[in-house]
């Protein structure tokens, strides 16, 4: 038991070439180390992602950067977050939760000259009687801009690092997902859309990334890759719709689809022949290369509300973005 607790606290430094700080144009923030056990996990290069037993403690270092042209005071603090409707939602202002009560920072504010950085250490101590389950939070860096005599209004700017902390006995819970049936549709505007349902079948939250490419189309045409570009997070048991809006110039007909999706080290690929239909038609694949079944436009109309050339995870309501949460720390 003692050995397991020590190993859980070991971290490796990040490498200079792998990271750019999360930023909103004024604040930069990045993780400086990740757990040894997650050396190959891209999510651990972006966020604090850990599994701890009750009574365990870890420390993680991160860096705050002043990207303005003036000296600024930056406040650093942990904030609450939750998963709701397949979104990672930060709490309002300085709202706390159970996880934030376990987090202590080495400093609560720093004053930085333009271009300067400050290193901060976060200590996460899980109580002995903590219940099993995953908690969510954000480590925030925040600066305030006061109103001036020229009539410019004040503002609060902040950037943060997500925290995904799972607590429980034993080893890391399983992470996995299933890719469902493939659908294609083309709206009245001529934009073809390919979509598939993704279900989180594991015990930890997933942040899906990936690409979709087409080849062997009419006249041996190719298209893509189209990059999945979303901050959507799937809770255990949740299902989301991954969709790609393609180029309206792509012709109707059969294409070879190559879909790659990943969350951290969990990766799945799907290769299939798909048919891009004429406007007003949707098709559903029943699992194999053939056959396709036809459905009316009403059945696929919800798939049309996307942007051309973008890949998105359909949500039930608009996303509240978390500024500066996407980055990749250095790693040796």
From TrEMBL:
UniProt key word Transmembrane: yes
Signal sequence annotation: 1-19
Origin: domain of life: Bacteria
UniProt keyword Membrane, yes or no: yes
Transmembrane domains' residue ranges: 292-313
Keyword line: Membrane, Signal, Transmembrane, Transmembrane helix
Identification of the protein by name: DUF916 domain-containing protein
Native species: Asanoa ferruginea
Origin organism lineage: Bacteria, Bacillati, Actinomycetota, Actinomycetes, Micromonosporales
